[in-house]
Amino acid sequence: PASYALLDSGSSFLIGPAVGMGIYAAEVGATCFTTDPTGLHTAVNCLDSDVGFDTAMIDCETPLLSLDFIPYDTSGEDEPSPNKNKKKPLVYSLEKDDLLVLVETFTELPSGIEQNIEYCMMRIVGSPTAQGYVLGVPFLNKYYAAFDFDNGRIGLAPATQHSDDSCPEDVFYEAPQISTAGATKQASVSTFSPNKTTSGASATLI
Questions:
Q1: Burial 134-162 (b: 16+ CB within 10 A, else e)
Q2: 53: β partners
Q3: Integer CA distances (angstroms), 5 to 42, 71, 105, 167, 190, in order
Q4: Alpha-carbon distance 73 to 126, whole Å?
Q5: How far apart (Å, rounded) are the C-alpha atoms in residues 182 and 103?
Q6: What pTM, to 2 d.p., does this model score?
Q7: Beta-carbon neighbour count of residue 101 at 10 Å?
Q8: pLDDT tens for residues 29-53?
Q9: Alpha helix ranges (H) inside the chain
Q10: Per the UniProt entry, what is one GO biological process (predicted)?
Q11: Is residue 191 very low, low, confident or very high in pLDDT (cuts 50, 70, 90)?
Q12: Rounded CA separation 56/33 (Å)
């Protein structure tokens, strides 16, 4: 279903409504768990939207369906999006390598021999209260984001790996002054040109 999305480099996971994330987790055969404040994990039904899940585990050899995000215009029908004129919609896909984290544990067998067990944790969380999606590190590792603050736009393009390049058009954005507890602070944010990316490709503005 259509929903809003927030880009957040401070989140290690993709967080979304329990309904959507739960359907995806169940479809790929994951086992879902909730975690209480003491750290105790309890297995739950991935499709239980009233509970949601904090962790989804899966066999590392299991093939995964891609998790796709499709942006759409929110400005209203009177202002058609340039994306509507294209034959194919923009699709930002996350694949198996983007969604799984390998977890290794050692278990002592009755014979006294330690056995190395590998399994994978999915980088998704199903929240029973979320109304939209938080696209965290799994998304931003794959797609470079360029923020055009002046025009309220975001550019996205496939990111390169291990690149330290920066854009010559980088600008320093001066945020408005914010008054906090009688003290005035100036917030500064480094942003990038929406027409350049470290991948060398033009970002798509949405």
A1: bbbbbbbebbbbbbbeeeeebbbbebeee
A2: 126
A3: 28, 9, 34, 26, 22
A4: 25
A5: 48
A6: 0.69
A7: 12
A8: 999 999 988 888 899 999 999 999 9
A9: 18-27, 96-99, 137-142
A10: proteolysis
A11: very low
A12: 6
